[in-house]
């Protein structure tokens, strides 16, 4: 069931979303050559504690992994798509890209967002991958309007990514969000006609998160049971925003 949010609820989600924005902004500036993904985790933990927020990811149970996630961030480097785990030994170096994905809960309402940051000098392909993935999210956000349908969002991401020579990860999708981190509907980054195609209504909130591989779309999960990687070893980028449907158009809850 898709949960419709009131204006008061959206304002609460906005508070969570803006905290996530501030955390990611700080981590994006911190992510430099020589910094470890664990350094990013430590900084995020402190910001959440200082704000009185609960981490959305830490303690989250995933049946496929058979355990709860242990960190407040997912830090996915290079060929890692999502759910990479912070590690003191994972030192960022020039040419890397790192997806930083996090969420919080404030007053019972969730915010969730992700950025991918380039470290030092990137290859031309890596630069284009980040640009196209970011653009696909912005184009999708513009489709979050009353009367449109879910597939308008999904198809917009797919068309932009594929037309630029990259591929959509199909195993992982966006989602509704509210008092739960993951709510209905699922938001694939491609048109999946096996899914329902609901019309967008005022008060719906969608976490839209293109996950784009430079090479082929296939993914696999490593033996740690969490980290999803591009099967062909190509770089993967990930950006995410939470977007509310309003009478005045899309309202991105996770940025100013």
Query: What structural class do the secondary elements suggest?
Result: alpha+beta
Q: What is the overall silhouette?
A: globular
- Secondary-structure element order, as H and E? HHEEEEEEEHHEEEEEEEEEE
How many structural domains can be distinguished in the coordinates?
Answer: 1
| CATH 2nd-level architecture | Alpha-Beta Complex
CA-based gyration radius:
17 Å
Sheet-strand content, in percent, reads 25-35%
List the total number of helices: 4
CATH topology-level name: Creatine Amidinohydrolase
Low-confidence stretches: none
| Number of DSSP-assigned strands | 17
Fraction of residues in helix: 25-40%
Spatial arrangement of strands, main beta sheet: 10-9-11-16-17
Determine the mean pLDDT.
Answer: 98
Largest sheet: 5 strands, antiparallel
Euclidean distance between termini CA atoms:
29 Å
CATH superfamily: Creatinase/methionine aminopeptidase superfamily
| The first-level CATH class name | Alpha Beta
Description:
A 5-stranded antiparallel sheet has the order 10-9-11-16-17. Strands 1, 4, 6 and 7 form a 4-stranded antiparallel sheet that branches. The protein has 4 helices and 17 strands. The longest helix is centred in the first third of the chain and has 24 residues, at about 5-30. The protein has a single domain (about 5-250), classed as Creatinase/methionine aminopeptidase superfamily (Creatine Amidinohydrolase). It is of the alpha+beta class and about 260 residues long. α1 (about 5-30) runs antiparallel to α2 and α3 (about 125-140) runs antiparallel to α4. It is globular.
């Amino acid at each position: 069931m898709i949960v419709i949010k009131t204006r008061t609820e959206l304002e609460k989600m906005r508070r969570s979303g803006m905290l996530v924005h501030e955390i990611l902004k700080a981590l994006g500036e911190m992510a430099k050559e020589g910094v470890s993904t664990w350094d990013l985790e430590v900084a995020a933990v402190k910001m959440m504690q200082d704000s009185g927020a609960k981490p959305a990811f830490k303690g989250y149970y995933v049946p496929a992994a058979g355990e709860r996630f242990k960190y407040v961030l997912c830090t996915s480097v290079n060929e890692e798509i999502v759910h990479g785990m912070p590690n003191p030994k994972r030192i960022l170096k020039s040419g890397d890209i790192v997806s930083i994905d996090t969420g919080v809960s404030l007053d019972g309402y969730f915010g969730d967002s992700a950025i991918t940051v380039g470290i030092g000098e990137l290859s031309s392909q890596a630069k284009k991958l980040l640009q196209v993935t970011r653009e696909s999210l912005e184009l999708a956000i513009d489709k979050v309007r009353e009367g449109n349908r879910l597939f308008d969002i999904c198809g917009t991401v797919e068309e932009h990514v594929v037309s630029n020579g990259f591929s959509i990860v199909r195993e992982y999708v966006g989602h509704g969000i509210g008092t739960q981190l993951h709510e209905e509907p699922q938001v694939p980054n491609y048109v999946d006609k096996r899914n329902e195609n609901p019309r967008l209504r005022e008060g719906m909130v969608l976490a839209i998160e293109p996950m784009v591989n430079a090479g082929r779309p296939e993914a696999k999960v490593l033996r740690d049971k969490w980290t999803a990687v591009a099967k062909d070893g190509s770089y993967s980028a990930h950006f995410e925003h939470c977007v509310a449907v309003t009478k005045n158009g899309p309202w991105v809850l996770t940025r100013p």
